[in-house]
Amino acid sequence: MPGMTIRLGRNQYGKAEVRVVAVDRSSARHTLVDLNVSSSLRGDFTAAHTAGDNAHVVATDTQKNTVFAFARDGIASPEAFGLRLARHFAGAHDWITGARIGIESYGWSRIPVGGRPHDHAFSRDGGEVRTAVVTVDGDGPDADVHVLAGLTGLVVLKTTGSEFWGFPRDRYTTLAETRDRILATAVTARWRYTSADLDWDTAFAGARTALLEAFAGTHSLALQQSLYAMGEAALERNPDIAEIRLSLPNKHHFLQDLSAFGLDNPDIVYHADDRPYGLIEGTVERDDVPPAPAAWEGTPGFC
Amino acid sequence: MPGMTIRLGRNQYGKAEVRVVAVDRSSARHTLVDLNVSSSLRGDFTAAHTAGDNAHVVATDTQKNTVFAFARDGIASPEAFGLRLARHFAGAHDWITGARIGIESYGWSRIPVGGRPHDHAFSRDGGEVRTAVVTVDGDGPDADVHVLAGLTGLVVLKTTGSEFWGFPRDRYTTLAETRDRILATAVTARWRYTSADLDWDTAFAGARTALLEAFAGTHSLALQQSLYAMGEAALERNPDIAEIRLSLPNKHHFLQDLSAFGLDNPDIVYHADDRPYGLIEGTVERDDVPPAPAAWEGTPGFC
Amino acid sequence: MPGMTIRLGRNQYGKAEVRVVAVDRSSARHTLVDLNVSSSLRGDFTAAHTAGDNAHVVATDTQKNTVFAFARDGIASPEAFGLRLARHFAGAHDWITGARIGIESYGWSRIPVGGRPHDHAFSRDGGEVRTAVVTVDGDGPDADVHVLAGLTGLVVLKTTGSEFWGFPRDRYTTLAETRDRILATAVTARWRYTSADLDWDTAFAGARTALLEAFAGTHSLALQQSLYAMGEAALERNPDIAEIRLSLPNKHHFLQDLSAFGLDNPDIVYHADDRPYGLIEGTVERDDVPPAPAAWEGTPGFC
Amino acid sequence: MPGMTIRLGRNQYGKAEVRVVAVDRSSARHTLVDLNVSSSLRGDFTAAHTAGDNAHVVATDTQKNTVFAFARDGIASPEAFGLRLARHFAGAHDWITGARIGIESYGWSRIPVGGRPHDHAFSRDGGEVRTAVVTVDGDGPDADVHVLAGLTGLVVLKTTGSEFWGFPRDRYTTLAETRDRILATAVTARWRYTSADLDWDTAFAGARTALLEAFAGTHSLALQQSLYAMGEAALERNPDIAEIRLSLPNKHHFLQDLSAFGLDNPDIVYHADDRPYGLIEGTVERDDVPPAPAAWEGTPGFC
User: Fold this and answer.
1) Which member of B43, C284, C285, C303 lies 3.0 to 4.6 Å from B10 by CB, making a disulfide possible if both were Cys?
2) Does the keyword Oxidoreductase belong to this entry (chains A, B, C, D) (predicted)?
3) Is B252 an annotated catalytic residue?
4) C-alpha distance from D68 to closest chain C C-alpha (Å)
């Protein structure tokens, strides 16, 4: 096992979690965009690894500066901002072959004062986060460009309309079948567009609505069934979405047994459990769209 | 220093973070209440500490069971549920002198489907949490009863209408004065009612609205000024509130210097910083209401 | 309810979580101190609250700068650094009546290389954090000075030597008695010294050892008994400790019932549960030392 | 875009975060293993997704039960336990094609009492977590079996012996070059063994030592150089390791400018920053070992 058989494999580097906030004061009715931006560069960085030669290493501090500088012209949407940054980095030097921009976007709503939305005072929207991932491989018009949109932290729950029965039983099976349970999950979804030129905010809102309405409207025999219905709804609504990946933890709500206290419990009192939890992961896709593994490189999740 | 000079001082114990969810299915339009309940008992538990004698120790498992059993009859509001539980525990045994119930309440909104709120599908409201603390000392009609309501995790931001200048300068002062900055904070508020018999949900909603509107409407020369205006608004709106304690981290948004890149930055691009942060804590109170330190025992925060 | 009855109550403000790291390179064998420092000032800040007048408001940015500047001369120990800072702030202006410095200290150990501790490479010690709180009220030699030391996040467990039985049973009691259970907790402890001039590191190490040895050595009939034994041990070891407050979550490890699978489980397989958990809080104190509520102002925890 | 073009893509499901603790009391000197186990099954679950037919869905509750039941015979090591579980699930039904077991292992050390390690009292080791991922595709002797070991949360720092200079400068570059800086990171590493029959604990300890010693011993011109040296050391030490993937956040410690206060700062006082941070990710591999993408399916991280 001579040392010469050891080599550098795949690698990337960048600046993670640049917290940039851009305010538009062009009218009295201000707007703001609140992002967490992470950049990663891919290319030939072998000398940095093997010899500490940084001639190819665009400093992560420079990447951070670039994010702030680009925000000066306005951010528009996470996807549009990611495209600008990824194309810039991918084309910055001949040794850079590609760039990935990951963005989290935090929503803000106008505070109502006397029933009217305020011009410049906002409250942050809960735990849900909008996400975008832009990957650009190559430079100029021939570059491969991929855009993922998504969301995470969208916690949803149905108080009825969920069953679970008919599963196989083996030596280790003790779970009772149920025809009525609480179904709750925290949706993480990412979907891939086949276009890099869309009305991003409208496309996002449409997919989000499709996911929510399908979750609510599906009488669920399995969380897998809800997952598929949600993915299918997103694809049916928007022909520019090629595939969607969903990760749905089954946030168990167990009916509490109150019989020891002389009480019945007709689907009223539940214990919300932390761990363990089921975890259902799946892709819903069009069969006529070629896969694009490059779009998903470095994005967590199975599928 | 003989060992006999050492003794047990103040103490309490209980079960923390019972995650109880109660569903009301009495009509097709379901509702749910989602709580995190912590109970603490106070009284004579000396023998448990010094001799391991548990004759006085109502098991924390029993406390948990009681929470679930009481939820069978409906939770109504966090404050009402806390009152039922605290009165029960405080009067359960003669060696128990008091009980404290702390509650976090998570909000859920109906998912709109085709524009109409769904009957039994919900999404969880963001990061904001409604809180309640009920303390009962003694048993029966002579018991001292205190109710705190509050909220935490309400993140708010103003894009203008905030200044900071006129502060003293010493050897260690480098901060520039500003006539226009972003002001952002995550509100933690707790207020004390002088009544134990209110329409709790209405009172909570009113105080929350007062806080939000005062934050939005105050042209702020100091975060302290916003704090006072918020507290004052809550007290002015509701005569049953005796005092309010506010903890407001100053979530700094620093204007990013873009001059190195040949760019100006007329209040457009900011960096949202994590740490350190300012922390402003204060009480706003009525001068004709006696203080009630027992109401605040064991609740974090200065004041 | 005229508005004139509303007034400002107790308040404080400061800069929270200044992450200062100081390296001592005075010999080839470097050392480092890694702190998270929070300062709070108390005094007359009414005008800032009611009129936005900042003439009394030492900017939190100035407080941050002061922390870094004072670190230039070395930090020595968290307690000593807190004393320097608190005395400085408390005496800085006549309208400031007192200051509180809260510190978290993160430990680092030398990385062993070939069995020898490295001169300048370190790994951070786990989840345990050393804490200090210094409060100074007044200025000069007549000031009231209080020093709390402590630790948090010290997770300990005994695989035997813990029982729980003899507790009262009521309608809501279902817990079985046990003569052998796992006992686990995450220790948060804070103790008050009666001196402001000690060998702080030695005192800390002694108290920590006392806590650990008492936890390990106590055959526990109740977590309360372990708590008291731990506190007593700390006080017996060090006459400069007047009182100690302990908060011990009972991190439940439930024996898993394997009988449905035809297996016994003689205290082998457990499920570590997250929530709910028992929470035991208590003070152990000397009866001949006057209490010092000012030392504990603004520090979370009952007692 | 007819609906028929939509189909289920890749998917898996399982039970996440089963917190199993196994105690060995076979001698007076107890030992314990503390794991967080997640199982995922792969195979034909289409009917569950498209029709809510659960005939193929081994309940996640059953998977949880299996984890506990298997622990009855002892856990040995995370890798060995993962192999037992993965082989069981992969061979449980003909519609199951494979299984992935992900494990986090928390370390515990004996509490020293009077200088001697205690027989049954332990304290938990910090923030570092040992990890294992076992993937089995197929059943019986022909199955493809992959074992990854690793660690996460190992925070390391060098107070000197780190430089960063020679990087390219463009319009957005403002960073100064440095010949001496603090280098700190939180190591996440995963490595792939080419054998499924090793002394797992010894192999883990060896890799961990190699990583630590290489971090400490490398005079670093770039964090990439440290990454490569660390990976290379692990591979050189153990011929059974085919490749290692490292993710190293650059936890910036910025030298604090004290000149405004009339103070110099010769590499003494630093500010530990939270965000943004550099993020360096890379693989070090043997060139004579075929890649095994199946081993990494569903494991976060680039490469």
Assistant:
1) C303
2) yes
3) yes
4) 7
